[in-house]
C-alpha cells in the first residue's frame, strides 16, 4: 500500500489498533497455520501490529511481516520470532520464497487497477502448492472511510 493518507491514519491510530487486536486467534488464521508445512516460511502481508504474525511464530512458522505503516512495523517487530519491515505491496520477492502469504484485510487498500498485479506477485512469491489467505470487505467501488483510509470493495 502506498496511499499516504491511509498510512498516516494507521500511524496515528497505532494505540487504537494495539487495543483492538488483543483477541484470540481467528479460525481462519489457525486454519492457515495448520496448512503450512512444519517450520514453513510465511509472509504476513499488511501485518498491522503483528498479532497474526506473532501467533504464526508461536506455532513454529518462520515469519516475515511487512506493512506500509512505520508504527505498525515497530509494533510487529516487538513480537518474538517475527521479522518485520516497512514495505509496500510492490516489494514482494519475484521468486518462490514462502509456503504461505497471509493477506488479512490488507490488499483491500490497493487500488482496483493494481489488484491483479499484486495477486500475481503473491503467486510468484509462493512455493508451488503455497497457501494464500486473502480477506476483503464486501461491497462495490473504491472510496475512503470516515477515518480517511482508502478501500477497494
Q: What can you tell me about this protein's structure?
A:
The protein has 153 residues and is α/β, with parallel strands linked by helices. The chain has one domain (4-152): 3-Layer(aba) Sandwich (Rossmann fold), CATH 3.40.50. It has helices spanning 4-12, 14-20, 27-35, 51-58, 70-76, 112-125, and strands at 41-45, 62-67, 82-86, 98-104, 126-135, 142-144, 150-152. It has a five-stranded parallel β-sheet with strand order 3-2-1-4-5. A two-stranded antiparallel ribbon has the order 6-7. The longest helix has 14 residues, at 112-125. The mean pLDDT is 95.
Features:
globular; single chain; 6 helices; 5-stranded parallel sheet; 153 residues
Short summary of the structure?
The protein has helices at 4-12, 14-20, 27-35, 51-58, 70-76, 112-125; strands at 41-45, 62-67, 82-86, 98-104, 126-135, 142-144, 150-152. Strand 1, helix 4 (51-58) and strand 2 form a beta-alpha-beta unit. It contains 6 helices and 7 strands.
Average the pLDDT over all residues and give the rounded result. Answer: 95
Number of domains: 1
Gyration radius, rounded: 14 Å
The proportion of residues in beta strands is 25-35%
Number of helices: 6
The span between the termini is 15 Å
- Stated plainly, the CATH topology is called Rossmann fold
**Order of helix and strand elements from N to C terminus:** HHHEHEHEEHEEE
Largest sheet: 5 strands, parallel
The rough form would be described as globular
How would you summarize the topology of this molecule?
Elements (H helix, E strand, L loop, with lengths): L3 H9 L1 H7 L6 H9 L5 E5 L5 H8 L3 E6 L2 H7 L5 E5 L11 E7 L7 H14 E10 L6 E3 L5 E3 L1
